[in-house]
Amino acid sequence: MLAAPSITLSILDLFPAQRGTASSMQGFVQTLTGAVIAGALAPLIWHSVTLLAAASLTFSALGLMFVRLARRHAPPTPAS
Fold first, then answer.
1. Is 77 among the domain residues?
2. I need a surface site. Which of 13, 27, 61, 72 has the fewest CB within 10 A?
3. Is residue 28 included in any domain, yes or no?
4. pTM for the full model?
5. Quick one: average pLDDT of 30-34?
6. Are the beta carbons of 67 and 3 closer than 8 angstroms?
C-alpha cells in the first residue's frame, strides 16, 4: 500500500476544482473493485490453502508489475 497515497494525490491533481468529488469517486472505484474481486474469487478458492496462497502471490506479483510499469511511464520529477 505504499503507492496508494501518491496515486490518490495524482488523481486529485487531475481535477483541482472538484477534489472532493474526485476523492469520493476514487474511493468508490477502489472499494468496488476490491469487493467484486473478493466476491467473485473468494468462493472459488476458499476451500484450499494452496489456492489462497497462489491467489495472494498472483495479486502481489500483479501489483508489483503495475507499480513498476507506472514508475517507468511516469514523468520525471523535478530536482529539489
1. no
2. 72
3. no
4. 0.59
5. 89
6. yes
